[in-house]
Each structure stands twice: as C-alpha cells, then as structure tokens.
Specification:
- The chain is an alpha/beta fold.
- 26% of the residues lie in helices and 30% in strands.
- It has a six-stranded mixed sheet.
- This is Phosphoribosyltransferase.
- InterPro entries: PRTase-like (IPR029057), PRTase_dom (IPR000836), PyrR_bifunctional (IPR050137).
- Pfam families: Pribosyltran (PF00156).
Length: 171
C-alpha cells in the first residue's frame, strides 16, 4: 500500500462505481430516447474517463449515436481560461451532456458551459459520479451516481482511469 491509499477511505468499490455509471447511462437514454445522437463532453481528467465509460455503456444499451469530446481548461486559475475541444464537433442543435467526476461548488461545471452558450442547442445536461452539494454556483446535476454529504475540509476522489485503484474515496 502506498501513502496515498492509506489515508483514503473507500466509499464505492469498483463494482459499485460501475453500477452507478451504468444506471446513469440508462437514465440518460430514458431522458433522450427520442434523439438519434447526443454529445458527451467530459471534463479533462477523471471527468473524461467517466464520459468514456458512459459512451461505452450507452453503446451497450441503446441505439444512440454518441459523440465523445474532451473539454480542456485550467480549472485552478481564478479567471476562466479558454476551453478547448479535443476535436472539431458540430454542437449546434444537439443534446450535450457535460460529464465530470465530482460536483462540489459547481465552479468547474459553470466554466464548462461557456462554449455551449454561444450556439443554439436542444438542451444541456450534467452528469456526475458524486455530488457533494456544496454548491456556490446555480449548477445542479441531472444525473448523479452518488450524493455524498461531506465537510468542507474533506476531499472526494473518483478514480476511473487507473483500474487497480478504481472507486470513490474520501480523504
């Protein structure tokens, strides 16, 4: 065991995490079954890993054509950095689902909305693995894997990109 795993308490096992992601995929399909295609925009890091898992689950359970894009921006600076798509995608008149690992204050998701506000879309939805409910911005998740009450000093880590550590942890 490394020092980083000793100080963590596992909240969701790999199996439980996978079940939450699959349930979110079913909910996305239920709310968008009339669509022929949707776009899932994952926020770089574990949000993008979550988005890739959603795309795989949706391919397994639905006929939807799902386009995956990665949103890259620096979420640690105090002013908004430009948001870069990892590829050229037509977002106009589409359903967009922004995917991230943890919804805490809503700041990152508020920033992630910026490129989609400049075009006409059918709707924008938000999917997260964990909602901590410490919202400072008027952002809510349409799809939540796990709602977790935490203190402001605790840290929630969702691990999806490293199979040997997969799960949700509280530090």
């Amino acid at each position: 065991m490394t020092d980083s795993t000793i100080s963590k308490r596992q909240i969701l096992s790999p199996l439980q995490t996978s079940q939450k992601i699959r349930r979110i995929a079913f909910e996305i399909y239920e709310h968008n079954f009339e669509e022929t295609s949707i776009i899932i925009a994952g926020i770089a890091g574990e949000g993008y890993a979550f988005a890739k898992r959603l795309v795989a689950e949706l391919a397994d359970i639905s006929p939807l054509h799902v386009e995956l894009i990665e949103l890259r921006f620096d979420k640690h600076i105090h002013f908004q950095s430009p948001i870069i798509f990892d590829k050229d995608v037509q977002v106009e008149n589409q359903v967009i689902i922004i995917a991230d690992d943890v919804l805490n204050t809503g700041r990152t998701l508020a920033f992630a909305l910026e490129p989609f506000l400049k075009v006409s879309m059918k709707k924008v939805q938000v999917a997260v693995v964990v909602d901590r409910s410490h919202h400072k911005f008027p952002i809510h998740a349409d799809y939540v894997g796990y709602a977790l009450s935490t203190t402001l000093t605790e840290h929630v880590e969702v691990v999806l990109s490293r199979p040997e550590e997969e799960g949700v942890y509280l530090k």
